[in-house]
Amino acid sequence: MRKRRKNRTGAGIIAFVVLILFAIISYRRIGLSQELYKDNTELTRLNEKIQEQQERELDIANLREYTKSREYIEDIAREKLGLVYKDEILFKKEDK
To answer: Are 72 and 66 in contact (CB under 8 A)?
Structure first.
């Protein structure tokens, strides 16, 4: 009889320990799932930022090429200096 009681007590203790371990693992899993969600959100945000910066880099490269072109020089000469070609006619709007 005593041996059976000891076996039951031992089995009960083992079951309790297993239950506690299961609870700890479940709690930790929930925490890790939340961290994973936060990390995925951050990763998405950073990927969007990388895409924006790549687009900006492309815009800057295009602007750099444009500033080296004859068209850019002509546009600046017209806007800032008011220059025109010899055979070109310039029409101005009258202010009333």
So the answer is: yes
DSSP code of residue 80: H
Q: Write the DSSP symbol of residue 18.
A: H
Residues 30-42, mean pLDDT to the nearest whole number: 96
Query: What pLDDT score was predicted for residue 30?
Result: 94
What's the rounded Cα separation, in Å, for the pair 68 and 15?
A: 79
Contact 52, 58 (CB under 8 A): no
Whole-model pTM: value is 0.55
Does residue 32 come out as left (phi exceeding 0), alpha (psi in the -120 to 50 range) or beta? alpha
CA–CA separation, 69 vs 74, rounded Å?
9
Q: Which amino acid is at 13?
A: I
pLDDT of residue 4: 60
- CA end-to-end span of the chain, whole Å? 116
